[in-house]
Amino acid sequence: MSEAVVGKLAAAVAAEPPLFCAWVGMNEPAIAETLAREAFDAVVLDMQHGAFDFPGASRAILSVALAGKPAIVRIPLGEFALASRLLDAGAAGVLAPMINSAAEARRLVSFTKFLPLGDRSWGPRAALTLSGLDPPAYLGAANAMTQAIAMIETEAALDALDDILAVEGVDGVFIGPSDLSIALDGGRSVAPRGEALMRAARRIVERATAHGRYAAMFCFDGDDASAMAALGFKLCSISSDQRLLQAASRKEIAAARQESPATPRRSKK
Fold first, then answer.
1. Is 211 designated active site?
2. I want to staple 80 with a disulfide (CB 3.0 to 4.6 A). Which of 111, 124, 170, 200 is the partner?
3. Which helix (H) or strand (E) holds 45?
């Protein structure tokens, strides 16, 4: 296990190549570790729509670290206090859903960054080991090492985009394309790669770059992730554990029966 695994995420987003991440919702650390041992750059653990609870996420963070990879955790809606506990448990980043204003972005920062940026309480029980630093050094480096990522999923968030990006301590923004597409269409349809969504996506990349932040995107497969990276998204997830399992199962069953595999439906993110 790399002792500096927590710092890998911050270092990678500061470098040139895009990052491709696994997305895990099943509350089983072995699944997260298995995907971490593939060529993904990081693993996202989903506590909002996935099945993870805090003990499961804590174990999965360490399992991913065993593979030398950093873990990002999506917290449930509004549970900012949980962000601090996950960072103490060794998460390299926190993904917060439905950040719709600068005030909400500042609240995220208050729980993910130490003074002077935020009010994160001291207690990095696993983070010290995974950072490879002693306590004074970790205190000095943690704000830059741990990533606070705000999800942009509503029209209110788009209206407040520059204000959110201007909040010191927000490292990046992450598009939830299904929810944002629903918002842009007034709740009539889900079109995560529709014209309105992609127009907003290009604007988000442009504004994030202008503020010196990065933009990230939930992607549905490898081809989709490649296309989004080409648009300037710095961090792209690829599918999900459930979808990968379904796709592999359908492919192998179809091969055994000499059939064409069904295409799994896109999940809501």
1. no
2. 111
3. strand 42-46
31-52 pLDDT tens trace: 999 999 999 999 999 999 999 9
Q: How far apart are CA 66 and CA 137, in angstroms?
A: 23
Of 184, 153, 190, whose CA–CA distance to 266 is shortest? 190
Q: Of 133, 165, 33, 151, whose CA–CA distance to 93 is shortest?
A: 151
11 with 144: CB under 8 angstroms?
Answer: no
- Ranges assigned E (strand) in 14-64: 19-24, 42-46
Three-class secondary structure of residue 217 per DSSP: strand
Residue with tokens 């090492």: 145
pLDDT in tens, 118-176: 999 999 999 999 999 999 999 999 999 999 999 999 999 999 999 999 999 999 999 99
Q: Using alpha carbons only, what angle is made at residue 178 by residues 160 and 252, rounded to the nearest 5 degrees?
A: 150
Q: Which CATH number fits domain 5-257: 3.90.1720.10, 3.40.1010.20, 3.40.30.10, 3.20.20.60?
A: 3.20.20.60
Whether 131 and 138 have beta carbons less than 8 Å apart is answered as yes
Each domain of the chain, given as residue ranges in start order, spans 5-257
Of 37, 49, 211, 250, the active-site residue reads 49
Give Cβ neighbours of residue 93 (< 8 Å, ≥ 6 apart): 9, 42, 70, 71, 72, 73, 146, 147, 148, 149, 171
The residues with which 215 forms a beta bridge, in sequence order, are 173
Q: 80: which 2 tokens?
A: 């900012």
